[in-house]
Fold:
Amino acid sequence: MARQSNIHFAGNGYRFVLFNDTAPRANVLLSFMLIFITNPITMPVIYLGAYLLGCALLGTPVVDVTAVNWLYPLGAEFLGILPAFVLGCAVIGVAAAFVGYVMADGLWRLRISQRITERARKRLARKRSHPR
Structure:
């Protein structure tokens, strides 16, 4: 059974339950905090790649994105790069979903075939040890 510990954040009474001894030995709080370390590092790379891919697919020239006012999403600069960015994100998202589906399906089929093989091996061993 998992150990639970209650943590109060800023005295607001909300309880965040952490399961410390779970099967994969994952610490939920640590994972949550690492999001704020890794996302600022990876997101600009992914977003720039999506924008460049969208520009390549649309055949539009690459705009210097440092001139874009990111705090004003209705500005002309931001709306100018938006179609390429959205297309690049969509293509990357569909490709990642396809690869993830194929990998998960392959691993699932492998696991099922391993279980069937193991079950057949046990059945054969049982028949050999107890002949009729």
In short: The CA atoms of residues 50 and 89 lie 5 Å apart. The chain is about 65% helix and 10% strand.
